[in-house]
Amino acid sequence: MLDAVKTLVNSRIRRVGVASVAALILVLALPVFAHDIPSDVTVNAFVKPEGERLRLLVRVPLRAMREVDVPRRSGGFLDLARVDAALHNAATLWLSGNIELYEGDARLASPRVVETRVSLESDLSFRSYDAALAHITGPRLPNSMQLLWEQGLLDVLFEVPIRSERSEFSIRPKLDRLGLKVRVALRFLPAEGEARAFEFHADPGLVRLDPRWHHAALRFVASGFFHILEGADHLLFLLLLVIPFRRLVPLIMVVTSFTVAHSVTLIASAYDLAPGALWFPPLIETLIAVSILYMAIENVLGSNVRRRWMIAFAFGLVHGFGFSFALREQLQFAGSHLLTSLLSFNIGVELGQVLVLLVLVPLLVLLFRFVVAERVGTIILSVLVGHTAWHWMMERGERLGRFPWPEFGAAQLASATRWLMLILILAALLWLAFGVLQRRNSRLEARRKPDADSSTS
């Protein structure tokens, strides 16, 4: 019996030992596997239609080209004399099959590899199209150069037949498999007009290189719509803003005031009229958190909601700057239709707000009618949201505190004065418009009251 126990114990010890060794080997091997996929990859590209062909120049790090059989010399260095076939295979496997090109709405054939080159990381030829083309079609690196696969760049010239160089072209670069984070810097050189620069990450979907106005409008309406639905801080502010309202006219006044205000700062920011300093975005994010906290406190204290449109206008200016930060990266897809894209983005934001209100207001009505009293429910919701806003304010304020105080000169003061004048003019116009609306609403209610009294008598 004792021998059996000893045998069992020794067996368990051996199993544990084998499992431990296997786990140790796996842990040690993890960094090796992790390095197989690069963490950050930057792809540079040019697209240029010329006559009846579209030329595509691409530069990508060789370390992103995996699963390629590469001829090497002793020491692991590339055999540059015999590397052309491997480069062609890498370009076909990782680039050609993952880049979709369109002429109008028709997809073009897969790009054909014309030339490939290995370049050093210090090479600067991709600063311009002409220099990049001359480099790819020029001399190769000397065979005697000692270069590891992970240290070089792959430059490729692709060509695709097209009907006309003046057609509308689109591209979808599905290059997200090249690394954990892939950044694509692309420049389009049309046959006529100015070059356009794009920068996007992973798979951006179909990118129209020279969009028509309706293409830009549809893209930006969708972008604005989904931005408001994905922005938790904007949704919480909207919730606190409309909690006290059950009547249509006051609700319209508040939402309109918020809309006008954020439209002004959104469009002004897109035209570079907002401060461009590094401290400005964290300041706006902090003020957005402050706006949510303020609305929560006001709902708890029960202040006068008849003047809430003023608060909505003031904080709408702040939220407009927040919208502009999300819009800034999207403006590269506007082409020559900047104003159309701005208005379309704003329309998308408004459509998102309308959808939120159509869901939110009936839910609040049901909540306060069947679940909890209106005053108690308002306090509970406001305290919960205010607690979240407090933490956001502290975190964002800490980030803002890392920046030094800005220095204001004559130019900054003049810009601030212009902004203040514009805000005052808009506020005055809203005051007049809402005053007329309130008087008209009061007269309608006064007319309804005698009719109601006569019907009851």
Secondary structure layout:
Elements (H helix, E strand, L loop, with lengths): L1 H33 L5 E11 L2 E9 L22 H11 L4 E5 L2 E2 L4 E9 L8 H8 L15 E10 L7 E5 L7 E8 L7 E6 L5 E2 L4 H18 L1 H11 L5 H23 L9 H22 L6 H21 L9 H34 L2 H27 L9 H47 L1
Parallel strand pairs: 1-8
Antiparallel strand pairs: 1-2, 2-6, 3-4, 3-7, 5-6, 7-10, 8-9
Helix pairs in contact: 4-9, 5-7, 5-9, 6-8, 6-9, 6-11, 7-8, 7-10
Give the tags.
457 residues, alpha+beta, four-stranded antiparallel β-sheet, 11 helices, 10 strands, disordered N terminus
The shape is elongated
Q: Roughly what fraction of the amino acids lie in strands?
A: 5-15%
Alpha carbon gyration radius: 31 Å
**Count of individual helical segments:** 11
* Assembly annotation: single chain
- How do the SSEs run, as a string of H and E? HEEHEEEHEEEEEHHHHHHHH
Largest sheet descriptor: 6 strands, mixed
Low-confidence stretches: 1-9, 11-35
Compute the average pLDDT: 83
**What is the helical fraction, as a range of percent?**
55-70%
Biggest sheet strand line-up: 5-6-2-1-8-9
Number of strands: 10
Distance between the termini: 104 Å
Computed structural class: alpha+beta
What does this structure look like?
The protein has helices spanning 2-34, 84-94, 129-136, 213-230, 232-242, 248-270, 280-301, 308-328, 338-371, 374-400, 410-456, and strands spanning 40-50, 53-61, 99-103, 106-107, 112-120, 152-161, 169-173, 181-188, 196-201, 207-208. The chain is α+β, with helices and mostly antiparallel strands.
